[in-house]
Design a protein that fits this description.
With about 325 residues, the chain is an all-alpha fold.
Length: about 325
């Protein structure tokens, strides 16, 4: 169990690291094309990256079922209904969250968008109450502590939300739903195939919206190829698959706390990108914002400590 938790934590942290750095590339992508176009391009690339792996997994399972007794390998069977429904639900939630996030990044700073996005860590246990999911007291304390840290980083002048902040806040709510959907479907089917389907759905919906509202030029895709490649391959294809695999049989709120490290990473990476000239707007962090980063990081470490289980044994 400890080994599985460590493996899950590493996968989730890897996803958080990739997402944190991808905020810079998302902001860069807005310089070349509109959000619907960018979302469609990155989703299509994520789908292409995972498609060969998904096909290989399906063929392997089919081959095993032919060579061995079906009852002996029943656990390897990929349930068609659960996989398709799960991929559809994940894809729709991811599409909405990604689009609101991409539009929000246009009107707020990268670091602020990263921290507001991770407000899903407090939304998930609240939504989990309605789904009859219980959380250890350490998780609740960590979630509230992380929100305090986000307050220090986001609300540096007054308790107010800009238009971009509001869009990203909606994105946080949709990401909370996305995480809970994955929590439900990931133990029931293969994670890579589930992720592949979700990106196909995301690409399809984003493409329709692109043709209606954006009317893109192919030259925009060529000029913005670097942000598309990073967010498509790393943020979409790799990180979201890490998320699905890491969340399997893992507490969704604890998973969200680890994933929330993307906010700390986004703040650091955006500052470095600004210093290197990749971002035009000032991404510098104040003392309070740095304190906020430290508080969130501390909350994530605290939720990993086996306090609740040891106290239960006593």
């Amino acid at each position: 169990m400890v080994k599985n938790n460590l493996k899950n934590s590493i996968l989730l942290f890897s996803a958080a690291f990739i997402w944190g750095t991808s905020f810079v590339f998302q902001s860069m992508g807005n310089n070349y094309m509109k959000p619907f176009t960018f979302s469609a391009a990155r989703s299509f690339l994520g789908f292409l990256v995972l498609l060969p792996i998904a096909i290989y997994k399906i063929k392997k399972v089919n081959a095993d079922r032919k060579n061995y007794n079906i009852s002996e390998i029943s656990e390897t069977k990929i349930p068609f209904k659960a996989t398709v429904i799960g991929g559809l639900c994940c894809g729709l939630a991811l599409t909405g969250a990604s689009l609101f996030q991409q539009y929000g990044v246009k009107y707020t700073t990268v670091s602020k968008a990263g921290f507001i996005t991770t407000l899903y860590i407090i939304l998930i246990p609240i939504l989990g109450i309605f789904l009859k999911k219980k959380c250890p007291w350490t998780v609740w304390i960590s979630a509230v502590t992380a929100c305090i840290g986000m307050y220090f980083l986001c609300m540096t002048e007054s308790f107010s939300l800009s238009f971009g902040d509001t869009l990203v806040l909606i994105c946080a709510f949709l990401f909370a739903i996305h995480i809970l959907i994955i929590d439900y479907f990931s133990p029931k089917t293969d994670g890579v195939i589930l992720s592949c389907i979700q990106f196909l759905i995301c690409f399809s919906v984003s493409s329709i919206l692109t043709l209606i509202f954006d009317r893109p030029d192919f030259s925009q895709i060529v000029e913005g190829i670097v942000p598309i490649l990073y967010t498509g391959i790393m943020s979409s294809g790799v990180a979201y698959t890490f998320q699905i695999l890491g969340q399997k049989n893992f507490n969704p709120t604890a998973a969200a706390l680890i994933l929330s490290l993307e906010s700390v990473i986004s703040a650091i990476s955006s500052f470095i990108a600004y210093q290197l000239g990749f971002l035009s707007s000032d991404q510098s962090l104040s003392t309070l914002q740095i304190i906020g980063c430290i508080i969130v990081f501390t909350a994530v470490i605290f939720v990993q400590l086996p306090i609740s289980s040891s106290s239960h044994k006593k």
